[in-house]
Design goal:
Helix content is about 60%, strand content about 15%. The termini are far apart. With about 190 residues, the protein is an alpha+beta fold. It has 2 domains: about 90 residues, Nonspecific Lipid-transfer Protein, Chain A (2-Layer Sandwich); about 50 residues, no CATH class. It contains 9 helices and 5 strands. α6 crosses α7. Pathway: Cofactor biosynthesis; ubiquinone biosynthesis. InterPro entries: UbiJ. Belongs to the UbiJ family.
Length: about 190
Amino acid sequence: MLLAPFNHLLAQQVGLRNQMAEHAGQVVVLVASPIELCFKVAEDGFLQQATPPADTTLRFHISLLPRLALKDEAAYRDIVVEGDTALGAEIGKLLKGLRWDAEEDLSRLVGDVLAHRLTQWGAGLFGPQGEFAFRLARQYTEHWTEEAPLLAKQHDVASFLAAVDVIRDDVDRAEKRLERLTALLKPPAER
């Protein structure tokens, strides 16, 4: 079910689907905890449901999804590739190239003329001339983080996550030390 949007976009982009087909048979896992999506590239370039083990795994924090959807180049650097890194980089590049042909999909619902006008309107609102909407959203975000703090500041969240990582690592080290000490305290016959 989660693969349907990817396959829909691949159906709209034959060239990209052909590039994906070059990796037929490869199993990939996308992990944006708690979401985990495991798929296999089919001979025709579409994606099929699969189960691990994977040839490559792409891991990222779920908070990156909006930035990835907006093609924020800095967000791609936060993706961790495990396993076959060359395959992971190639699959990441292909997924990054997916584009939605909204006008094509809308034309099936409302007709070609209205679909064209709606996409023009959307491009005006969210495209290059949509900078007003972007600035307004940025102003509200700044207001909610600085003046009426409903949202956490990005550096505060980063600091918190770094502190959690340090504590997690400290706990892991303490558990290993405890295991070693417990093993040393056991009588030689039980070791």
